[in-house]
Structure formats: C-alpha cells, structure tokens
Specification:
Blueprint: H1 27-31, H2 34-43, E1 47-49, E2 54-57, H3 60-67, E3 72-73, H4 95-102, H5 112-123, H6 126-131, H7 133-149, E4 152-154, H8 155-160, H9 162-172, H10 182-190, H11 199-225, H12 231-237, E5 239-240, E6 243-244, H13 247-277, H14 280-288, H15 293-303, E7 309-314, E8 318-320, E9 323-325, E10 330-334, H16 335-338, H17 373-390, E11 395-396, E12 415-417
Parallel strand pairs: 2-10
Antiparallel strand pairs: 1-2, 3-7, 4-12, 5-6, 7-10, 8-9, 11-12
Helix pairs in contact: 4-11, 4-13, 7-9, 7-17, 9-13, 10-11, 10-13, 11-13, 13-15, 13-17, 15-17
C-alpha cells in the first residue's frame, strides 16, 4: 500500500485532537488501551501527539507497510549526526546504555544491520532452536509440576519468567550459578524503552548495562580460550567473507537476545492466561482440544499484545494520507492498535483461539522481524501445553496488578491455584 493512498474508511478531518482516553500514563488506559485505540483509528491514519513529540500510526495496513519502508529507520546515526537531524545527543552519563543498545542489530540499519544479522543467523539457526525443543518442554513440565505440588502460586514468577530466562541462558552458555542477575539486568535495561523514562530509570539502566557488559566480556574471553557448544562460542566463530563480530557487537547481541528472548515471552504468557481466565468459553475449548495450542499462541499474542509500540525515525520525508511527515520526525507504530484493527481482523475484540487468518504483527515485520520468533513460539506452546496437561484446574485467585508500563505490556504477577 502506498502511503499516500486513501482507504475506504471515513475519517474525521485531519488535525482533530487526541481522544482524551489515549493517555499512556493513565492507569485506566494501561488497564485496557484497546477502546482508546478504536478512537484513534477513527481519528485518522496518522495523528500528532505532542506529549511525546511523535506521530501515532494506529492502522494495521499502515503499521505493516511502514515496518518495511526503508525511508524509516530504527536509528538515524548511519546517515546523520544528532545536530543534522535536529535532535539532541543523549546525556554523557547515559553512554554505557547507548553503547550497549546502539550496537545491537535491533537498533542498527544496513549495512551494519545486514552484516550482524547474517553473522548471528549462522549461530542462531532453525536447527539450533529446534534442538532445544525437548529441553524447553522438559523444563516447562518441571516448573508446572512444582506449581502443582505447591497448590498454586505466582504463575509469572514460578513458570512464565524462569522458563525463557533459563532457555536463553542455556543457549548462550551462561552457567546456572551466574543466572540470578539476568532478569533484573534485563528489566532495568528495558525500562529505557518506555515513553519518557525517569532519571532513576535511566540510572538503573546505565548501571545494569555496565554490569551486564562486564560479565559478558569475561564470559567471551573464557569462550575464546575454551569454546563450547553454545551461542556465545558460535558468535565468536561466526564469520563471512572476512567479516566477524566485534566484541561490542557480540556483547550487544547477547544482551538483545536475552532481553528480547524473554521479555515478550514472559508477558505473552501471563497476558495470555489472564485473557483465557476472562474468556472461560475459550479456555474450556482449549482444555478440551489441546491441538488448538498453536493457533491459541498466535491469537493470544494478537489479543493482548506484549509490545504495544515500536518507534521509527523518518529519514526522508514521507506522506501518509495527505499529511507530510518531515525528515527528523518520529513515528510511533501502535502494534496493539494494529492487532485490533477491524480492517485486518474479523471481530478483533473477540478472543477466538480458532482464528485462521491472523496476520498479527507482534513479532514486527521487515528487516527487523524478530529473529527469535520460532523460539518464542516453542516456549509459549511448551508452557501452555504443560499447564493444560498438568494443571487442568488452574484458576486465578484474584485480579492481578498491571505493570505501570505502556510500551512493554505485562502484569506484576498472576496468582493462581490448582486443585
């Protein structure tokens, strides 16, 4: 779809104000943002949002097309300085976070992105991921068995969180005794991806970046001296036509794989089970027919999207629905809204575990499509299957608290009981 083309949807005139319901810092919005997204989609295809100095893009067709549009980028520094782009450089005290973040392929553009993704793909192969499946399924079963023995507990802390953290740590070759700080480091770093992070959030992200980088630098040195059958060793060995990953690229890649490799999976798990508990008819159908698990995973990722927003910088002027978006602007691509767009999904507000046509964009699209999507699907299916088989009476014990985040959407915990 060309960005200047109209659609059959009728919109109010461009420039209408943001619906009051859209407030990324309001607990009521965070509890259920989807009605506000419907109002946004009725406003138009692109809406200026002054509080964050962004253009909001709420429609599925636009979000999907813009994720593939090379006039946009996750970074602009491959083409422009901060000054040339009309932006202010990050504060010097944030440098450890930005060094770690900016050398990961998620925040790079070609040619560096192409080179790093190609090299990482040599170590992170479908065969490597598939080989992990028995380990993932065994670990999921063990975690669920523990939950059942205790008669319940916090589904997030006891199943949803330890499973993907252990899996990615196992892939990377991080010894079991070293894994305790991984989740806190990841949570602190990911705090910087929220809208307008606080100075304390930035301080914690910087500290985590320093500590995580130092740990990985030592681990990489150990693997250089004594390679193993793990992803860190694979990243060290990966080469192509003389290209190799630098040490910083390896560190940033390992952190990215850990953060992206479990943040979405943890939140998709608890968001998904809370959605199932609130839709007992769908849960009953799933319990009666476990063959629905693959389509249930896709539908739950769509229904309550774990990553609600992804940003893109405008590298060259673009036009959306007759509105010029100039170079230097920032687009906020609203994944959660796109995944509830009635132009792309029949009855999007209905949870339908049998949904066959499900073009959700929870794993992004284009060159930045999630490299770990196959692993995430294996983990989500494994934990869901283990809970269905081993905890068939699983039920919530109360209303969970939602994290006060917008971009990364999840719960503080999900208390459940069994038996």
């Amino acid at each position: 779809m060309a960005m200047g083309e109209g659609t059959e949807v009728s919109y109010v005139p461009r420039g209408s104000r943001i619906p009051p319901a859209f407030d990324p810092w309001d607990p009521a919005f965070l509890a259920d943002p989807y009605p506000a997204y419907a109002e946004l989609r009725a406003q138009g295809r692109v809406i200026r949002y002054e509080p964050t100095d962004q253009w909001l893009v709420p429609h599925h067709a636009d979000v999907s097309a813009l994720l593939r549009d090379r006039r946009l980028g996750r970074t602009y520094q491959h083409r422009f300085s901060h000054e040339d782009f009309g932006r202010t450089a990050p504060p010097p005290q944030h440098e450890p976070f930005h060094t770690l973040n900016d050398f990961g392929m998620l925040d790079l553009e070609p040619p560096d992105h192409t080179r790093i993704r190609r090299l990482v793909s040599k170590a992170f192969t479908p065969r490597t991921v598939e080989r992990l499946k028995p380990y993932v399924e065994r670990l999921a079963a063990e975690l669920v068995d523990g939950l059942v023995r205790r008669g319940g507990g916090d589904l997030l802390a006891e199943v949803a969180e330890p499973l993907p953290v252990a899996v990615i740590a196992e892939m990377l070759g991080i010894p079991e005794g070293d894994r305790a700080p991984l989740r806190p480091w990841s949570a602190d770093i990911c705090g910087m991806y929220e809208l307008s992070p606080s100075p304390e959030t930035a301080r914690r992200a910087v500290q985590a970046s320093v500590e995580f980088s130092a740990y990985l630098r030592e681990l990489i040195a150990e693997r250089r001296a004594a390679p193993g059958d793990d992803l860190i060793s694979g990243l060290i060995a990966a080469h192509d036509e003389g290209d190799r990953l630098t040490e910083q690229e390896m560190i940033s890649t390992a952190v990215l794989l850990l953060n992206a490799g479990h943040e979405a999976t943890v939140n998709a798990t608890v968001n998904g089970w809370w959605a199932l508990f609130r839709n007992p008819g769908q849960l009953a159908a799933l319990r009666a027919d476990h063959s629905l698990v693959p389509s249930a995973v896709e539908e739950l990722m769509r229904y309550d999207t774990p990553l609600q927003l992804f940003e893109r910088w405008v590298l060259d002027d673009i036009e959306i629905d007759g509105q010029l978006i100039p170079r230097g602007a920032e687009l906020a691509l609203l994944f959660g809204s796109a995944n509830h767009d009635p132009a792309a999904f029949t009855a999007p507000e209905r949870l339908d575990l049998t949904r066959a046509d499900n073009p959700h964009i929870s794993f992004s699209a284009g060159i930045h499509y999630c490299i770990g999507a196959p692993l995430a699907r294996i983990e989500l299916a494994a934990s869901m299957t283990a809970l269905l088989e081993r905890a068939p009476t699983l039920r919530p014990t109360g209303e969970p608290d939602r994290k006060p985040n917008f971009v990364i959407r999840g719960l503080e915990g999900l208390s459940v009981e069994v038996g």
